[in-house]
């Protein structure tokens, strides 16, 4: 798709694409078929056990394991049943392995969406779902106003092109073309201004009450509405509809021109062609509401034996959710409806966590500290499960001294693994090197932390953490990420390393000190618009109010230097209102390194204006 319609996947992919430059990402060299699948578990780490878990979790029985769906619930039950089989202790008050939480999972249309117009004194009606539909991030409101055509709705930062120049749209309804005047040219100066949220935010910032988006014939010969496909509910702060060309041409009839005529005039001249449409008054009503779902983190405790140390725990965690039947997050938009089994992402990590749980359960008498095994829900929705846990811990965070995160560890091709987080505790280098003596893996050590998986939630709370990862591949977030492509022998090597590291963690006598280290962010995303700058913050993806809430500020970044703090809510940036993470990303896309940007934040009841000098991704 030409639109940046999935900011959450963009942020996650920013980190993953970096590793394409340092990892070979072809399929595993040792295939699943080389093992005889056994239903009998071994207390030792076993490739057959990994195969059994991955094949089950990545089967169609679980329908892609999206959190909030029956398949996701069934996957949680599977993990819980494994914990019970191993005799691990539940830690919630009800003796249950599940920690339930509610989250906004999407949006739905109500029954009260309508569009009508008075065109040269005549009533004109429009049919919902045939000629118009609201966007899922539309403001629920009713407005009546005059009509304006605002071209592509683009205002270049250098003012060389501005569809709103000289145009008064305050309280009015604007028609805006999808994409940009040089559509198809990814190097065009307009390319980073084509996202839907940029267009809605720009219309809102210019005072428009509503915006109608239409796809011109230059971009699509079919006359279709944009799908109601943003399953993640976000606020745009403006009534937002998609209209067909047929519907728009009814509204343009007083001009004696069609939307095709107007688009051709802009594209051929390279100049704006915005204008007021006299004799038209539009009444529009949007009815969109958020939908709520429940998710469940699954966790179990293996208690240590040292009376002085058993109250201190380290976490071995992995997210068990995936993308269901596609849609939001999928890299195969044409495969919506096909089950995305997520064998590597992250049945592999979940299987690894369960295998380590079985191993340590069989060796529990040797443990000094306790181990908390966790399987997180809703990682693919923005790290919601792990974030919920650290905000609602069942074991005090001050007693949690480390976290090991297993996410996509099933595609080792050259006896190597990427490990993130070495700078957040001084102990990691020594412990990992000792753990690797037996295994002899090539470890790609990265000092970066935070970022795109569940360790980030623990990192934000000052808990030392490491993230194990074997790299992205062609099947990432596609239906083709299947169990038979996982390298089980390679994963077994990684788990042997993790097992040895866990024994090393168990052997420490004093809790390690967390170090807030400088982190890197990577701006290149294959097939999408690259970010030229980063602010250096980790957003709170679970925040559903207006603004961008900061989960954590990265050491050495623009935000820290500007005085932005953890918990601040950005409400304005570079003169543009920020109502959501999509607004924030659309502003970032306009900036370049060295730009000095005014940022307004809310800190408790106080509102502050700060200045950040933007940095390039490192």
Can you offer a commentary on this structure?
The protein has 618 residues and is an alpha/beta fold. The chain folds into three domains: 47-106 and 293-506, Aminopeptidase; 111-286, 3-Layer(bba) Sandwich (Glucose Oxidase, domain 1), CATH 3.50.30.30; 537-613, PDZ domain (Pdz3 Domain, Roll), CATH 2.30.42.10. It is built from 13 helices and 22 strands. The strands form three sheets. The protein has an eight-stranded mixed beta sheet with strand order 1-10-12-11-13-16-14-15, with helices on both faces. Strand 19 (569-573) and strand 20 (576-577) form a beta hairpin. The two termini are 27 Å apart. Mean pLDDT is 90; it is low at 1-38 and 520-528.
Short description:
With 618 residues, the protein is of the alpha/beta class.
Fold blueprint:
Layout lengths: L6 H14 L26 H11 L12 H16 L12 E12 L4 E6 L2 E4 L6 E3 L7 E8 L23 E5 L18 H10 L4 E5 L24 E5 L1 H8 L6 H11 L5 E11 L2 E15 L10 E7 L23 H20 L7 E7 L7 H8 L8 E7 L9 E5 L7 H9 L5 E5 L8 H5 L5 E5 L18 H19 L30 E3 L8 E6 L4 H5 L6 E5 L2 E2 L3 H8 L7 E8 L2 E8 L5
Parallel strand pairs: 5-6, 6-7, 7-8, 11-12, 11-13, 13-16, 14-15
Antiparallel strand pairs: 1-10, 2-3, 2-9, 4-8, 5-9, 10-12, 14-16, 17-18, 18-19, 19-20, 19-21, 21-22
Please bin the fraction of helical residues: 10-25%
Q: Which structural class matches the secondary elements?
A: alpha/beta
Please report the total strand number as a whole number: 22
Architecture of the largest domain in CATH? Answer: 3-Layer(aba) Sandwich
CATH class of the largest domain: Alpha Beta
The outline comes out as elongated
Arithmetic mean of pLDDT: 90
């Amino acid at each position: 798709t030409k639109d940046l319609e999935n900011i959450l996947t963009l942020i996650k992919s920013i980190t993953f694409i970096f590793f394409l430059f340092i990892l070979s990402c072809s399929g595993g060299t040792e295939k699943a078929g080389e093992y005889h699948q056994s239903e009998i578990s071994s207390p030792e780490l076993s490739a057959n056990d990994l195969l059994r878990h991955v094949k089950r979790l990545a089967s169609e029985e679980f329908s892609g394991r999206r959190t909030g769906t029956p398949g996701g619930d069934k996957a949680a039950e599977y993990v819980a049943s494994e914990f019970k089989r191993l005799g691990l202790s539940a830690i919630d008050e009800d003796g249950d392995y599940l920690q339930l939480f509610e989250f906004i999972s999407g949006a739905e249309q109500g029954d009260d969406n309508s569009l009508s117009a008075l065109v040269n004194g005549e009533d004109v009606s429009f049919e919902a779902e045939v000629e118009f539909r609201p966007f899922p991030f539309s403001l629920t409101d009713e407005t009546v106003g005059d009509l304006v055509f605002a071209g592509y709705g683009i205002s270049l930062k250098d003012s060389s092109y501005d569809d709103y120049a000289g145009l008064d749209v305050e309280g009015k309804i604007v028609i805006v073309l999808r994409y940009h005047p040089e559509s198809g040219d990814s190097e065009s100066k307009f390319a980073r201004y084509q996202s839907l949220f940029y267009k809605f935010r720009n219309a809102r910032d210019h005072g428009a009450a509503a915006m109608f988006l239409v796809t011109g014939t230059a971009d699509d010969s079919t006359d279709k509405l944009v799908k109601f496909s943003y399953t993640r509910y976000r606020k745009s702060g403006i009534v937002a509809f998609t209209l067909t060309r047929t519907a728009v041409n009814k509204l343009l009839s007083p001009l004696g021109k069609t939307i095709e005529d107007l688009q051709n005039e802009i594209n051929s001249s390279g100049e704006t062609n915005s204008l007021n449409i006299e004799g038209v008054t539009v009444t529009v009503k949007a009815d969109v509401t958020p939908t709520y779902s429940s998710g469940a983190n699954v966790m179990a405790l293996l208690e240590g034996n040292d009376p002085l140390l058993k109250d201190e725990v380290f976490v071995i965690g992995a997210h068990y959710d995936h993308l269901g039947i596609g849609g939001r997050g999928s890299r195969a938009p044409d495969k919506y409806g096909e089950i995305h089994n997520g064998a590597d992402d992250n049945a592999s990590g979940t299987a690894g966590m369960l295998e380590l749980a079985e191993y340590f359960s069989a060796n529990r008498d040797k443990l000094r500290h306790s181990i908390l095994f966790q399987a997180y829900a809703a990682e693919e929705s923005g790290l919601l499960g792990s974030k919920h846990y650290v905000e609602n811990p069942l074991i005090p965070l001050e007693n949690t001294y480390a976290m090991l995160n297993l996410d996509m560890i099933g595609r080792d091709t050259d006896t190597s693994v990427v490990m993130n987080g070495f700078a957040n505790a001084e102990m990691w280098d020594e412990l990992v090197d000792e753990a690797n003596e037996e295994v002899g893996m090539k470890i790609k050590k990265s000092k970066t932390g935070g970022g795109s998986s569940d360790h980030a939630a623990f990192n934000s709370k000052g808990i030392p953490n490491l993230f194990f990862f074997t790299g992205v591949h062609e099947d990432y977030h596609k239906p083709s990420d299947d169990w038979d492509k996982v390298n089980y022998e390679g994963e077994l090597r990684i788990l042997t390393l993790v097992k040895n590291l866990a024994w090393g963690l168990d052997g420490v006598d004093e809790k390690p000190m967390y170090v807030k280290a400088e982190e890197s962010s990577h701006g290149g995303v294959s097939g999408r618009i690259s970010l030229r700058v980063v602010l250096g913050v980790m957003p709170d993806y679970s925040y559903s109010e207006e603004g961008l809430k900061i989960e954590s500020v990265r050491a050495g970044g623009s935000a820290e230097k500007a005085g932005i703090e953890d918990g601040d809510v950005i409400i304005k940036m570079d003169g543009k209102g920020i109502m959501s993470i999509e607004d924030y990303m659309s502003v970032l896309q306009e900036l370049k390194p060295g730009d000095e940007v005014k940022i307004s934040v809310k800190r408790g009841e106080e509102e502050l204006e700060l200045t950040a000098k933007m940095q390039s991704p490192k």
